[in-house]
Structures are given as structure tokens and as C-alpha cells.
Amino acid sequence: MNKTVNTEGIEIDAANLHYRDLNKKIKSVINRNTGHAISISLKNVLGQRYIGDGVTGNINIKIHGTPGNDLAAFMDGPTIEVYGNKTAGSPASETIIYEDETQVITEWKEIK
Description:
Elements: E1 10-13, H1 19-32, E2 38-46, E3 59-66, E4 79-83, E5 94-98, E6 104-109
Parallel strand pairs: 1-2, 2-3, 3-4, 4-5
Antiparallel strand pairs: 5-6
């Protein structure tokens, strides 16, 4: 049986957070919900790097703002949606960049 939990309400405000603190918060949410589908919304992202690095599972991360380098490196399975600009990083299982809330301007999909 695949357990799912409605976690649409999980929101993390990244304003003034160091990238290490932000990533600890993200991984804490994931660890508390192991085995569940997880959706995390990050607000006010401004250059924090390594978001989603090494994350696996049924996870959706929505980033509002501009993430830093190495977005989604070593990620396996999750989807990251960026509502803003993307800086240099690695392709993820699925990384979608939106110029605005309606237009997809870049999409990467890992080919296995």
C-alpha cells in the first residue's frame, strides 16, 4: 500500500536563511514524512544553493525565487519546479523552470 499524505501546506520561508539552514529544514520535512508523497513550497529563495541535492523519493519542491548553484544535484525521483530564474546546476529527475506561473521555458528530464 502506497501511503500518501496531503502535504500541500508545507511552506518554508527562505528569506535570510543560509543555504545550510534551508537544506536542513527541507531534509527535516522529508525525514519526518518518509514513505509519503511530499510537496514543499519554498518562498523568497535568493541564491541558496544545493536545494534538493541527494534527495530521493516521491517529492515535489516548488521554488519561488532564484535558487543558487547545484540545484538538484544527485537527486533521484523528485520534481523541482522553479517559479523565477534558475542559476547553474545539474539536471534532476525533472526540473521545470517557469518564466511566470503559466509558461514553461526550460524542462530537463533524466534519460535512463
